[in-house]
Structures are given as structure tokens and as C-alpha cells.
Amino acid sequence: MSAKPAHNELERETGYGTDLWRVIAAPVVWALHFLFCYVYGAVYCAKAGRDAPLDQPTIVVIVASLVALALIGLSTLQIWRVRARSLTDNDFEFEHNTPEERHRFLSHVALMLCVLSAVAVIYVTIPMLYLSTCR
Amino acid sequence: MTDTAAQEQRLAKAWARPKGWAYFSDVNNSVIGIWYISAAFAFMLFGGVLALIIRTQLAVPNNNLVSAETYNQLFTLHGTVMMFLFAVPIFEAVAILILPAMLGARDLPFPRLSAFGFWCFLIGGVFVCGSIFFNAAPDAGWFMYPPLSTEQGGIGADIWLLGLSFIEVASIAAAVELIVGVLKCRAPGMHINLTPAYGWYVLVVGAMILFAFPPLIAGDFLFEMERAFDWPFFDVTRGGDPLLWQHLFWIFGHPEVYIIFLPSIALLAMIIPTFAQRPLAGYSWIVLSAIGTGFLSFGLWVHHMFTTGLPSISLGFFSAASEAVAIPTGIQLFVFIATVMLGNVVRTVPMLYCLGALATFIVGGLTGVMLAVAPFDFQAHDSYFVVAHLHYTLIGGMLFPVIAGVQYYYPFATGKLLSRKLGIWSFWLSFIGFNVTFLPMHLTGLLGMPRRIFTYGALRQWGDLNLLSTVGAFIFAAGFLLFVWDCVRPKSSEPNAPRNVWKAGTLEWAGKVPADDWGLRSIPQIDSRYPIWDDKTLLATIDEGKGLLADAKEGRRETLVTSVLDAEPTQVLRVGTPTWLPMLAAIGLGGAFIFPVWKLWWPTLGSALFFLAVVLCWLWTGTAEIPEKQTKDIGDGRRVPLYVAGPQSTGWWAMFITMTGDLTAFLAVLFGYFFFWTIHPDFPPIGIDGPGWQWPMVAAGLAVVTWMATLGARLTNAAGQVTLSRGLLVTGIIAAALTGVALMAGPWTTGLDPTAHSYPAIVWGLVVWIVLHLMAGMIMQAYALARSIFGKLTPRHDADLWNVTLYWHFTGVCALLTALVIGGFPLLQ
Q1: Distance, CA of A58 to CA of B657 (rounded, Å)
Q2: Is residue B695 domain-resident?
Q3: N or C: which end of chain A has fewer CB within 10 A?
Q4: Where does the record place the Heme-copper oxidase subunit III family profile domain (chain B) (predicted)?
């Protein structure tokens, strides 16, 4: 009845790092970045009027994006040391019944979410680079 | 009698279904799930009939089958029923039915809550649908835009607002139930990386419900205050703004699309591996994309508002996020296609529906990417192109997968198989009929036909395409009816389906046919993602009672609670038994939502009090019971506790989840305050003083006192100082009452008139919101006090107090924020 590791895998130090909260860290950064950009832009345009130039918001949004990307990068670095961190490794099934496998699995999901979140942050920044007024 | 036979007898007795009329008092997930699914499909058929009347009216130009007024009611109710009474509830229904078996649990942690949700859904649904027979149905479109819906007379809009708010209770209840179920009720050994993909989807969708539905509840609250008491939140002449409703509605409305889509696609994630006869290719990619879609879907709501004149920068952000969401959505589809390609596909009816769903959804997804581009949307907005797009996504992303799921899980639920021949016929009729109906609508839309018109002139050249769509609609309906007939036709003469009829690998198929009321004979240790495929001795282990909880010695319904990440057993949870209380509670709450439609305030109050009494009785007799012993032997030499409190317990998590949703609703009301700040050059408006800073600061101080007193009560109780703890609870109750008085004193003494302008209205709105929460909190404190006095809450057994304290953490923060905002923000201006 007790848990048996498949494929005679060695038990390894699991660590407590990657739990469910850690997995959603990068998308949370995206969400905060998105909310900030939208709220900031909307409030700026509501208060400054429709003809106002977007010079200042462009800088603010770019800075916010850099901060967001840095935070996502930090989150990525923390996962980087986990074994089998690769996106394309042969073994990305994560189907063994051990805490270590669970840890690697969550790290893998977290890593991919970092990539997705970074892409989404960049997407959201792009319109700001092309628009010049609040119109 | 042998040991095993005696065990089985005890299990059967504990899990026996109530007989006769008492059948309707049942709470077991397998019964509630089937009621729920049947009710949702019944509403769906009703919505389908409405659609056919719509299509018949539009078949030829200048048709006069129905009047414009009736037509408005038809399309409003069609959208409302399909979204709120079918698409969302069917997720809850299916999950309640299959999730426990999939996770190896005997039942979900709160079976009575599931029953309560079901009865709320049924009562609310009948109420909303029934209105059309009295010519009183809502008729302002399924998203109820003001000012049309606030200015019009009649009770249609009230029915929509109150009826659906009531039904949303069921959704929140299901979210609580399902999130706790996935996190805490998995079979031992089912690490989070071995959880079936369906479980992941349910987890993500449950969390999404907590952030998506509350803004709508908050919007409904503001909306109904405007309709019932003339508080001008959406009235431009008095400083309101209809766009606030659009924001609140679509903050709900767009994630809702994914709340519908993800659990349906989750069914594909279970069905496709079975018929490809191999594990899902890229399980972690599915998890990634479920979580990713869940997040990104909250950044899309403004794409429903591209033509409202928001600054182009706002449109840009949402357009970009709308394109980004295609990435995780696409990943899921590629995972399914890869699984099909890598496996040996067994040709079955569920598989047919899966492939049809993928094909249809891809078309809807591509037009979605087109519509996410703002300039294209400007052209296609509110045209039949949008109608075509949304039906492709919903039918490809929800209806076909759900039918695939019904086809697949029918033997699991009933023990009988559906007819293969009827299934193939119904699929092709539905699939062809659907495409004949909706593919031409892209063109009709591009030719300029707006949605929601009850007829059109012959010169418009829309006649042929509309006729084609109408013909398609009837073919589609024929296919669907064939499927319904297949499900309901009598099958008692047919043999039972063999056990695990599809040769699936996941745990829900380990059950016997016909199924036992208690679920699995014993709960096995899980070592892989597809235990039936990988562990050939699994079924024998289960059947011979060699797993855990093979007995019900005390005659109680029990299920295992395990740890979140690694699924180590942590508790034996005694779950609720059949009772009428959930149904009575739903009737009481229903009255409290339904009577206000006619402004019958006394019956409303009576219903609310009845609801309160029933809920207190339910909690008092059925929850946080002190067990006869501390731990229990669950087999395999393991002993786990019967009573846990705080973050270890399911009840604490349920409170946490509920209050997260409640906090979101509060933040949505608070968003209203700041929204009004952005649209007014002077805020507070010149000439309106109040609520001043003095009373709000007193309220803030008192809120902190209440909050700390409640926390102190828990800590002192745990330390054994019971008398001090009770004293603190009494202090808390008094301080909470004073908080409410102080909070109202601010706007009251400064003479803020909520009907005069949106500013006093939103200040009063926030105050009313908090006062209602303070009242609920006082009832909870009094309840904990009574439990302590009657010996049902002791220093060792203090789950109630943990939960009440948790409630006050949230309410304390909200009260404090409200006081600071209404008192402090005007000072900053």
C-alpha cells in the first residue's frame, strides 16, 4: 500500500520551494502589470483629456514592463536550478509517484508560465509604443 | 457472515438512499449530479425552443410571426438561459457527478452545499424562465445595458437581476465545493502531478468563478438599488455612467466564456486519451495552458466595449491581451491533436463529438482573433458576424464537448450504454445543421445585418441567407432531439454496460456496474496518472476492501481528506447525510430574492429570516461535530484524526474561498467609487459635503476593535481561557454594532442623499454593503458564543471560532478600507 517510486528512481531532496502559490507568481505579475497599465492609462486620459499626448504614460508603461519582466525573470531564475527544468527535455511527463517528481512538475509548469507571462507582458506593452495621444 | 460481507452491509447502510418522497432530500453527489444535469438540459431545451422561434421569425423578410416586444423577450431569454441556466451550471453539474469518483473520494466534502446549490439553481431557473409565459420576461438583451434597462418599466429587468443573482449563489457554492474537493479529497498518493487533467481544470475554473462572478453580483446590487430606490449609479443626468455597468458586466462576462469553455475542454482531456489508448501527450502543457488561460481571460473584458469610445490606449491593451490568450488556448488544442495523432484511435460516438468540437471551436477561435483586432471589431460589432462567432465558440467549445461527455459518462452514471447508431445520426445532423445555421451568419453579418432586430426588409438581400440559417437550425434541433431521446428512452430491458466499458485508465471507471451508493469499495493508493492501466491489481485491491476506509463501523458517511500537494491522508471527514435543510434554505433564500421583484418587503424579510433560521439549524446540527474519539483507524495500520480545525480543515478553506469571492465583490463596488472619481472633474462634486472624516475614522477604529476582539477570542479560547474568550466575543458583537452605527452616521449627519447624485449613492452603497456584512459577522460571533456555552466549541475543538475569525479578517479589512476611502479620499482632492 505504501507509495512506490517507479523506475527505481533515487529519492532526492525535494525542497519546499515550488508550491501552488509559486506556480502562479509569474501570471500574477502579468495581472498586476496589466491592471496597472490599464488603470494608469485610463485615469491619465480621463483626467488629461482626449488630446493629451501619451509621452509620460509611454515612459511609465515601459518602466512598468521592465519591472514586470525583471520580476518574472527573478521567478524564472529561482526555478532554473530545479532538475529537468528544460522546456523540451525528453522526460516531461512527470508521472512518477514521488514528492520530487511533483516538485519538478510544478517547477516545469511554473517555468512555462514564466515564458507565457513574459510574452503577454510584451504584447500588452506594444500598443503603447505606437500610440501618441489619448484619442 | 464474513468480515467483508459485514463491512459491505455497514457501508450500504451508511450510504443508503432515502426512499419514497424522501428521495428529494438526498444529498449524495451521484444523485445531485444527475438532477443537476437533467435540470440544466431541460433549461437548455427551453432555450433551444426560444431559438427556433427566433429563427422562424427571421426566416423571411417582413415576417410577423411574433411582435417586436415578444422577439425582444425571446432573444434576451435565449441568451440568459443558455448562459446562466445551461452553460455554467452544466459545468457544476458534471463536476459534482464525476469528480469524487475521479479523485477516489466517496463524496465531495460538502454534499449538503451541493444540494443547496442545486435547489437554488432550480428555483431561480424556473422563476426566470417562467416569466415569459406572463409576458414579463426581461427584454433588454442578455447583458442588460442601461439606460434602456434602468429606464424601462415592468418587472423584466428585476426578474433578470434578482433571479440571476440568486442563481449565482449556486455557482459560488459549487466553486467552494469543487476547489476544496480537488485540493483536499484526492485518493492517497495522488500527488498534484498525478491528478487527472479534469481536476486541474476544475481547480482553475473554480478559482476563476471567485474573481468573475462577484463583480456581476456587485453590479446587480448597484443596478437593483437604482431600479428599486432610484440611486443613480448609471443615470448620466445625476452623475452616473452606464459604462460602469458594462465594465462590471464584462469583467464577469468575458472570464465567464472561459469558465464555460475550460471545463468542457477538460472533458476532452479525459475522453481523448481513453480512445487514443495512450496518456495525454503533454500533461504539464495542459496544466500550463489551463492556468495561463485562466489568468489572461481576465484581461479581455474591454474587447466587448471597443465601440464605447474608450481611449485608444485602453483598447490597445485589451486587444493585445485578447491576442495573447490565443497562445494557451491553442496549446490545448495542439495537445489534443497530438494525443490523437500519437495514439490508435478507437472509433466511438464520444470521439466523433470530440473531433467535431475541435473543428468547430477552431473556426470560432479564428474569428475571435479577428474580432480582437479593434478596427475589424468596429465594423463587425453588433452584427450577425458576432452572433456567428460566439455560437461557434460556445457550441464548439461547450455544447459538443458536453455532449461528448454525456455520451462518454452515460454508462458511468446509469450503467447503460447509449445507442451507437442514434449517436452517429445525432452527431451528423447536429454538426451539419449547426454549420448550415451559423456559417452563413458570418456573411449575413458582413452584409450589415445587425443582431437583435425582429425583422428586416426584402430589399436588404438578407433573405436567402436567413432562410438557409433557419433550415439549418431545424436540422440542428432534430439532431439534438435524437440525442435527448437516446438519453431518456427506457433501457431497463437492455443489459448493463460492462465494467470500465471504454477501457479507460482513470479512477472513475473503477466502480462496479450498477454502481454502489458508497462509490468505491475501498480507497486505493494511487501511483500513477492512469491507475487502471498501470496497476493491474488495482481493481482487485479495491474490491477486496484492501484499500483504505473499507468499513463504516460507526455507521457514518466518511471520506478521506488528504494533503494538498502529496495527498497524504490527514483526516477522516464525516460528510452530511440526506436532509431537507438545503432545500428549505434554498426556498427561503429564493423568497428573499424573488419577492423584491414586486417590492413585497415584508415577505422578503420573512423569507430572509426563514433562510437564516434554517441555515443556523443546519450548521448547529450538522457541522463541526465533536467526534466520539480523536482518531480513527482507516486500514493499512494508519490512524488519522476525525476533527481538525483551522487551515487543516475543509470548513476553513470553504470560508476562505467564499470570502475571497466576497472580497472581489466588495472591490468591484469600490471600483465603482474610483470609477466615478475618474469621470467627474470635481469629486466629491461641488456642493455635496460629506460624509466628513470624523465619523468614518470612529468607524475605522471600532472595526479594528471588533476584528481584534474576535481574533483574541480565538487565541484565548485555544489557551483555555474560555470565560475571557466569551467576554471578547460579546465585546466583538457590541463593537460590530457600533461600527455599523458610526459608519452610517457619517453620510447621515452630513445629509448625503443617495438619490441626488452618483457620489452620495456610491458612498451609501459602500456603507450598506459593509453594514450587511457586519450584521452577518455579528450573527457568527453570537453563534460561536452559543456553541461555546453549549459545549460544542471547546479549547481543543474550535473549528467554528477559526472560521468566524477568518470571516472577520476579511470583513475587518473591508470595513477599514471603506471607512478610510469614504472619509479620507475626499481630503486628498
Answers
A1: 38
A2: yes
A3: C
A4: 653-827
Dihedral angle sign, alpha carbons of residues A89, A91, A94, A99 = negative
Q: Residue range A11-33: average pLDDT?
A: 76
Chain B positions touching A1 (Cβ under 8 A) are 525, 546-547, 636
Nearest to B299 among A34, A47, A101 (CB): A34
How many domains are contained in chain B? 1
Q: Is A3's CB within 8 Å of B528's CB?
A: no
Query: How far, in Å, are A120, B262, B454, B462, B506 from residue B333 at the CA level?
Result: 19, 12, 37, 35, 21
Among B309, B470, B171, B211, CA closest to A27: B211
pLDDT band at B343 (very low <50, low <70, confident <90, very high): very high
* Cβ partners under 8 Å of residue B572, min gap 6: B549, B558, B559, B560, B561, B632, B634, B640, B641, B642
- The residue range of the domain holding B811 is 669-828
DSSP secondary structure code for residue B87 in this structure: I
- Check CB contact under 8 Å for B282 and A92: yes
- Among chain B residues, CA nearest to A42: B314
User: CATH number for the domain including B759?
Assistant: 1.20.120.80
- A19 CB neighbours in chain B (<8 A) are 565
**Does the CA dihedral B29-B32-B34-B38 come out positive or negative?**
negative
Shortest CA distance from A111: residue in chain B: B288
Residue B785, domain member (yes or no): yes
Answer whether A27 sits within 8 Å of B291, measured CB to CB. Answer: yes
Contact (Cβ atoms closer than 8 angstroms) between residue B473 and residue B55? yes
Helix (H) or strand (E) holding B810: helix B799-828
Q: Mutating which of B179, B186, B193 best tests the A interface, going by the most A Cβ atoms within 10 A?
A: B193
Q: What element of type H or E holds B570?
A: strand B569-574
Q: How far apart are CA B280 and CA B195, in angstroms?
A: 12
Among A61, A112, A63, smallest CA distance to A84 is for A112
Tell whether the torsion through CA atoms of A72, A77, A83 and A86 is positive or negative: positive
* DSSP track, B640-670: EES---GGGSHHHHHHHHHHHHHHHHHHHHH
The per-residue pLDDT for range B245-298, each reduced to its tens digit, is: 999 999 999 999 999 999 999 999 999 999 999 999 989 999 999 999 999 999
* B678/A46 Cβ within 8 A: yes
3-state class (DSSP) for residue A84: coil
Beta-bridge mates of residue B561:
B571
Residue pair B538/B508 in contact (Cβ under 8 Å)? The answer is no
Other C-beta atoms closer than 10 Å to the C-beta of A97 total 24
Q: What is the ipTM of this complex?
A: 0.92
Q: How far is A83 from chain B (nearest CA, A)?
A: 15
Are B514 and B528 spatial neighbours (Cβ–Cβ below 8 Å)?
Answer: no
Q: Does B9 fall in a domain? A: no
What residue has cell string 483504505? B548
Asked whether the beta carbons of A2 and B525 are under 8 A apart, the reply is yes
Nearest-CA distance A123 → chain B (Å): 6
Chain B nearest-CA distance from A68, in A, is 15
Q: Give A12→chain B minimum CA distance, Å.
A: 15
Give B533-540's long-range contacts (Cβ < 8 A, gap of 24+).
Answer: B533/B505, B534/B505, B538/B510, B539/B499, B539/B510
How close A37 gets to chain B, by Cα (Å)? 8
Nearest to B92 by CA among B62, B71, B113: B113
Model confidence over A29-62: pLDDT tens digits? Answer: 999 999 999 999 999 998 898 889 999 999 999 9
How large is the average pLDDT for residues A15-42? Answer: 86
| Residue among B548, B519, B521, B547 at smallest CA distance from B535 | B547
Which residues make beta-bridge pairs with B631? B641
Q: Count of CB atoms within 10 A of residue B416's CB? A: 17
Q: Comparing C-alpha atoms, which of B291, B332, B92 is closest to residue B200? A: B291
The reply to whether residue B526 touches residue A97, judged by beta carbons under 8 angstroms, is yes
